[in-house]
Amino acid sequence: MPTGVHLRDARQQLFDAAERVLLRDGPNALTSRAVTDEAGCAKGVLHRHFADFDAFLAELVLARAAALEAETRALGASVGTGTVAGNLTRALCGLFGPVPVAIIPLLTFRDELRARLRESDPRGGIAILAQATTGISAYLAAERARGRLAAGVDVDALTLSLVGGGHLLFADRDARPPTEEVVARFVAGVVGVVG
User: pLDDT tens, 121-136?
Assistant: First the structure.
C-alpha cells in the first residue's frame, strides 16, 4: 500500500470502506487490513485516527446509529398523517437498510466492541436496534395519544414485535431485502391486531 497518500476526511473514507467490505464480504471479513485496502491507504492511517480497530468499529456503529436519527425524526413527523401501518412500513424499510442490518451480526460476535459501545452509549452494545426501538416506541405512543391506536395498546410489546420481526425480515444477507409489500403485510398483521 502506498504511504503518504492524503485522504480528505479520512475518518469518513474509512467508515465508507468498512461499510463496503461489510456489505460485500460480511462481518467475518471486516479487518483493519480489509478496511485500509478498500480505502486505498496504508494501515497506519486507521491507527492515526483511532486507538485500535475496536475503537474504529465502535465509532462506525455510533455514526450509523446517529444517521438513523433522521429516519426516526421522519417517523415522528408523520404522527397523525397517512396510516399508522404505512408510516411504520416506510420507517422499517429505512431503519433496517443493508448497512444497519449488516452491523448487527458484527455486534453479536465482537465482545470488545459491545463493551466499548456500553462505555460510550447508554443504550448499550446494540445502538442501532436501540435507535429503532426508541423511535418506533415514541411514534406509537404519540399515535395512541391521538386515538389512532387503541387506548389499551401495550406500546412496549408492540415496539418489540415490530423491531424484532422487522429485523428478522431484513436479516438474511444472502437474499435480497424484502419488498415494501412484504414489509407492509408484516406491519399490517402486527398493527392490525391492536389497531
Answer: 665 556 677 778 989 9
